[in-house]
Amino acid sequence: MQDKTHLVDDITGHRRMRRNRKADWTRRLMLENRLTVDDLIWPIFIIPGENIVEPIAAMPGVNRMTVDKAVEAAKEAADLGIPALATFPNVEMNLRDETGSQILEANNLINRTTAAIKKAVPNIGIITDVALDPFTSHGHDGILRGNEIVNDETVDQIVRAAVLQADAGSDIIAPSDMMDGRIGAIRRGLDAAGHQSVGIMAYATKFASCYYGPYREAISTGGLLKGDKKTYYIDPANGTEALRDAALDVEEGADTLMVKPGLPYLDICWRMKEAFGLPVFAYQVSGEYAQIKAAAANGWIDGERAMLETLLCFKRAGCDGILTYFAMDVAKYLAKQG
Ligand code: PBG
């Protein structure tokens, strides 16, 4: 009498996980996570000039845009319901120097972008980075003195830059430089300047990763970078250190936390959400984007499904949102689904 069915029931004690997966309607009913347009932050690249949109070879489908074009793109993003943009400038080479002094120009490229978008599209959030790398002649995120990226002098400069960015209309300052003490210093600087409502999204755990390659092409820092960023970014081997670093950002007043890169660091996203309960964001960085695009272009992977699956996995890992170069594609896809 012992047929195969009884054998399995004996083994599982009559529990069968597949019952809940048996039909489309059961699967929809049991769904734990869903990606929506409200989860998206769109990083964009800005160039000087007018009426130019130029492709970035290592990031197929992603362009650099002049401010006027960025305003149009911001309108399109807002119409699709994307909550916020993150802006990154590709600064003219002749304006880059050892200390990244151009970041202290009130009317520099990143601040001109913020002001123009805020004026034309007031209902989209603007998140700006205060790291020095787009402004330095050596591509580092801080001030280089001899062989050292000096911490405190860099913090002093990025606080002043953060205030200028807030003056220009930035809603959230997102420092990606990993200097010690920067979150507390920026908070004090913003508050002293009357910017109490400007938030801070800490790049709480930024790893010394290979996945930033295409971004460095996008803002022309790749060829400039001397050495590596290991004295300030976190070693990919270290999860506990990442949590300690994030804890300091929380104590110093971060409003939200970010993990960067994204997919290889989902464990960090989860641990951070569990540990602090603050909103957690992941940055699906340029190399992650390029991998999917390259495999899809070769017909090795279904690019659309990979985009949707990777973004959904961030939600499952506890993220409240994702910075992704796919933002417009996903938003359009979700709008079509209704
Ligand atoms: C540096 C910065 C990086 C990125 C954004 N700002 C990393 C780097 O160049 O070291 C990477 C973004 C991406 O790869 O998409 N402050």
Could you characterize the architecture of this molecule?
With 338 residues, the chain is α/β, with parallel strands linked by helices. It folds into two domains: 1-31, no CATH class; 37-337, Alpha-Beta Barrel (TIM Barrel), CATH 3.20.20. The protein is built from twelve helices and twelve strands. Helix 5 crosses helix 6 (182-192), helix 8 packs across helix 9 (266-276) and helix 10 (286-297) packs antiparallel against helix 11 (303-316). It starts with a helix and ends with a helix. The model has no long low-confidence stretch (mean pLDDT 97). The structure holds ligand PBG. InterPro entries: ALAD, ALAD_AS, Aldolase_TIM. Pathway: Porphyrin-containing compound metabolism; protoporphyrin-IX biosynthesis; coproporphyrinogen-III from 5-aminolevulinate: step 1/4.
Draw up the topology in text.
Elements: H1 4-12, H2 24-30, E1 40-47, E2 53-55, E3 63-66, H3 67-80, E4 84-89, H4 109-120, E5 125-128, E6 143-145, E7 148-150, H5 151-168, E8 172-173, H6 182-192, E9 199-206, H7 213-218, H8 239-252, E10 256-260, H9 266-276, E11 280-284, H10 286-297, H11 303-316, E12 321-324, H12 327-337
This protein binds ligand PBG.
Ligand PBG binds at residues 129, 131, 133, 141, 176, 212, 215-216, 221, 229, 285-286.
Pathway: Porphyrin-containing compound metabolism; protoporphyrin-IX biosynthesis; coproporphyrinogen-III from 5-aminolevulinate: step 1/4
GO molecular function: porphobilinogen synthase activity; zinc ion binding
Subunit structure: Homooctamer.
